[in-house]
């Protein structure tokens, strides 16, 4: 009888343990080596367009409790970006060194399996696209198809092999992402082939006509025939564009007196002309400052397939394309290209 009572007690304890409900929150904590003063960890949920900010202490440690309405795939940003999957009942620890980000990123605790998969997938993405994604999209169709299939097979096989370790909603989401990627990636490839054909080196550049000139009057691209032209397509609201402004000033100074014109072509809305003029004045921007006629819808912007800025374009004295996506002023390779021209 005593043995029966002991066994029953054990079974009751086990049963109680099994019935412990999952936590209705997730714990996200960790340590950032070489933290950046006052910078917070930003978690962006693209699906719902929501952002969660996690405070990071001066010593690089952080700890937050997140109540999730549903399992969520975030883009986590702290100097660099990485994928982060968070679901209720997780207790996830993140470690990373900002000076060697990708190689130091480490996940431990409940939730590590999903996030380690995301880290693996990010590495495979880097292999697929390489240093310049255009090299991948410029492949011949057979080579493109082969490389894409190898990527999809590798991700799919790994996902299947780890299915038992992963959250079911995470697996479903990743499977759907692979299907969507295959479709969208082919569309992107076909679009790049159109770009290559329309904007190949040696092709006559698309034109713009009668754009507002900050210095007065209006200007057209044909006005600059006889000179090399380096065009910076930018806007006052674009952070990365503003980052390039001081670098562009240095390039302009270095090639002052040479046969090259530097045009900064703003795609701000015409109603924001005053804001455009103020920024040019405040930042003491040099070169030729123009304002496009219909912001992103301007024909010149459309003809150059510009979907994101800044974009830099290099044209020769005859108005022919040298590079439809030239290096940025902050990149040393721009000077290498310019030094190779007869300017």
UniProtKB/TrEMBL annotation:
Localization per record: Cell envelope
CDD domains: TlpA_like_family (cd02966)
SUPFAM superfamilies: Thioredoxin-like
Entry keyword annotation includes Acetylation: no
Domain of life of the source: Bacteria
InterPro entries xrefs: Redoxin (IPR013740), Thioredoxin-like_sf (IPR036249), Thioredoxin_domain (IPR013766), Thioredoxin_ResA/DsbE_sf (IPR050553)
Keywords: Cytochrome c-type biogenesis, Disulfide bond, Redox-active center
Record PROSITE patterns: PROKAR_LIPOPROTEIN, THIOREDOXIN_2
Domain Thioredoxin: 199-343
Matches recorded under PANTHER family: THIOL:DISULFIDE INTERCHANGE PROTEIN DSBE (PTHR42852:SF6)
Protein name: TlpA family protein disulfide reductase
Organism from which the protein derives: Flavobacterium ardleyense
């Amino acid at each position: 009888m005593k043995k029966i009572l002991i066994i029953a007690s054990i079974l009751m304890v086990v049963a109680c343990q099994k019935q412990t409900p999952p936590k209705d929150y997730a714990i996200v904590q960790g340590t950032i080596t070489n933290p950046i003063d006052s910078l917070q960890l930003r978690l962006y949920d693209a699906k719902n367009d929501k952002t969660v900010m996690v405070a990071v202490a001066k010593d690089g440690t952080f700890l937050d409790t997140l109540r999730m309405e549903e399992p969520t795939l975030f883009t986590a940003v702290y100097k660099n970006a990485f994928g982060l999957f968070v679901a209720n009942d997780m207790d996830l620890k993140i470690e990373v060194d900002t000076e060697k980000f990708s190689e130091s990123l480490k996940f431990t605790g409940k939730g590590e399996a999903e996030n380690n998969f995301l880290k693996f997938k990010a590495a495979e993405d880097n292999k697929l696209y390489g240093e310049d994604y255009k090299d991948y999209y410029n492949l011949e169709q057979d080579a493109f198809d082969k490389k894409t299939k190898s990527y999809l097979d590798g991700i799919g096989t790994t996902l299947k092999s780890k299915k038992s370790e992963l959250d079911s909603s995470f697996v479903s989401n990743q499977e759907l992402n692979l299907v969507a990627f295959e479709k969208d990636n082919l569309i992107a490839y076909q679009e790049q082939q159109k770009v290559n054909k329309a904007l190949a080196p040696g092709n006559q550049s698309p034109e713009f006509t009668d754009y507002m000139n900050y210095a007065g009057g209006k200007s057209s691209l044909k006005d600059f025939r006889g000179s090399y032209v380096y065009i910076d397509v930018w806007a006052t609201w674009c952070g990365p564009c503003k980052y390039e402004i001081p670098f562009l000033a240095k390039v302009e100074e270095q090639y002052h007196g040479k046969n090259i014109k530097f045009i900064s072509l703003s795609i701000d809305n015409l109603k924001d002309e005053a804001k455009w003029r103020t920024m040019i004045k405040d930042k003491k921007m040099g070169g030729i400052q123009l304002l496009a006629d219909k912001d992103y819808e301007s024909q010149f912007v459309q003809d150059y397939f510009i979907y994101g800025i800044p974009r830099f374009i290099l044209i020769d004295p005859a108005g022919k394309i040298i590079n439809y996506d030239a290096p940025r002023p902050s990149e040393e390779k721009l000077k290498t290209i310019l030094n190779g021209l007869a300017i």
